[in-house]
Amino acid sequence: MFKKLLFTLPLFILFSCYNEQSEIPDVYIDEYIYLANPENINLQSPNGWTYSTGGIKGLIIYRLNSNLNDPDNNFVAYDRSCPHISQNGCSVLNIEKDIIAKCECDESEFLLTTGEPLNGAHIGLKKYKVYYNPNNETLHIVN
């Protein structure tokens, strides 16, 4: 009996852990952002951001640093939809203080440098891959 309990207890603990999933469905993303375009001028400096099309409710593109020699760690892109709320009208993220994304529904906040929740939500922002091409100063955002 003791051996049976010893065997089943870890399995029970393992399968009873709660894992909150994002409410954002997977959609095809293949967007190009031209940094020379005047509407993207904020992305030419560190901590700059812009909204763009794509994703469920749009994208947030954020520039992390000024080191263009490290292009894979220079820009991040997130879905603009709140990751923890089903996709209703208020499930949109807006930028506040140039580094925080705030959900309109419940005022949950997320740090743009990492996508991690600061308060309210328990899951981070939906992140997409960003590739920087220095030859034509474009960002290619894909999933």
Folded structure, characterized:
The chain has 143 residues and is mainly beta. The chain has a single domain, classed as 3-layer Sandwich (Rieske Iron-sulfur Protein). 10% of the residues lie in helices and 31% in strands. The protein has 1 helix and 10 strands, in the order αββββββββββ. The protein has one helix at residues 2-16; strands at 30-34, 49-52, 59-63, 75-79, 93-96, 100-103, 109-111, 117-119, 127-133, 138-142. Strands 1-10-9-4-3-2 form a 6-stranded antiparallel β-sheet, with no helix packed on it. Strands 5-6-7-8 form a 4-stranded antiparallel β-sheet, with no helix packed on it. Strand 9 and strand 10 (138-142) form a beta hairpin. The chain is globular. The termini are far apart.
Task: Write a compact overview of the structure shown.
The protein is mostly beta strands and about 140 residues long. About 10% of the residues lie in helices and about 30% in strands.
Structure class: mainly beta
The Rg value, from CA coordinates, equals 19 Å
Provide the spatial order of strands within the biggest beta sheet: 1-10-9-4-3-2
How much helix, percentage-wise, in residues? 10-25%
Compute the number of helices.
Answer: 1
CATH architecture designation:
3-layer Sandwich
CATH fold call: Rieske Iron-sulfur Protein
Strand content: 25-35%
Unreliable segments of 5+ consecutive residues: 4-19
Helix/strand order, N-terminal first: HEEEEEEEEEE
In CATH, the homologous superfamily goes by the name: Rieske [2Fe-2S] iron-sulphur domain
The level-1 CATH class: Mainly Beta
**Residue-averaged pLDDT:** 83
Give the domain tally.
Answer: 1
Q: How many individual β-strands?
A: 10
Q: Largest beta sheet, briefly?
A: 6 strands, antiparallel
- N- and C-termini, Cα separation: 49 Å
